[in-house]
Design goal:
10 helices; Rossmann fold; five-stranded parallel beta sheet; single chain; Arc Repressor Mutant, subunit A; 2 domains; alpha/beta
């Protein structure tokens, strides 16, 4: 059984190169390539060739990858999403995970790693880069401290740290200094045995805290 994939990326050369690589990986076929999120949505509205997986560029004109991921999660929750980006940025990863992405790929990914990512996400439902995987290992294998170990203030702040907002934005919304907010975040992550906000989001989702 072959899994059908759609690529959405406004950089056509990158999208075509990625499509060429994927078409050589056993068990996977490219249905089509879209240059914008709106083009993808229009094809979906026509109910033509709905894929198993969408590989979605994070930064696109017209509709961002975040907006497209939100639309897919709402309208086609059965479709897996892999985010695609030039850089492994923590804020972008968090934003895309919250929007429904099941993994995160760099555009510089090698074919062997791409094949592993595709097989993994179809088999296990998630895939992350080695950096994020190390965070996952720290989260789930070491077993995080339960939420009740957090103070009332930390429990209040937890949803903010699991959002896509930066520390500066959180600080402005709560009328606190960025240094104070970052200090609370570091304390929470230390208590829960996670290395960064990506791990915090993944743990909070697994535990049902957000």
């Amino acid at each position: 059984m072959k899994h059908n994939i759609v690529i959405v990326d406004d950089h056509i050369l990158i999208a075509e190169a990625l499509a060429t690589m994927i078409n050589t990986i056993p068990g996977f076929d490219i249905l089509y390539v879209c240059s914008t999120g709106r083009e993808l949505i229009e094809k979906f509205k026509q109910q033509r060739n709905i894929p198993d997986l969408v590989i979605l560029d994070v930064q696109m004109p017209v509709m961002s990858g975040y907006e497209v991921a939100q639309w897919l999660t709402t309208n086609h929750p059965e479709i897996l999403i892999l985010a695609l980006s030039m850089q492994d940025d923590e804020d972008q990863v968090i934003r895309m995970i919250r929007a429904g992405a099941k993994g995160y790929l760099l555009k510089s990914i090698k074919q062997a790693d791409l094949a592993n990512a595709l097989v993994t996400v179809m088999k296990e439902g998630v895939y992350y880069t080695p950096q994020v995987s190390r965070t996952l290992s720290n989260d789930y294998i070491k077993k995080a401290v339960v939420k009740t170990e957090l103070s009332d203030k930390e429990r209040e702040l937890l949803p903010h740290f699991c959002s896509e907002a930066t520390y500066r934005e959180i600080a402005a919304a709560l009328f606190l200094s960025p240094r104070t907010v970052e200090g609370h975040a570091n304390t929470i992550m230390e208590k829960l045995n996670v290395r960064n906000r990506i791990g915090l989001v993944l743990l909070a989702q697994k535990k049902g805290w957000i």
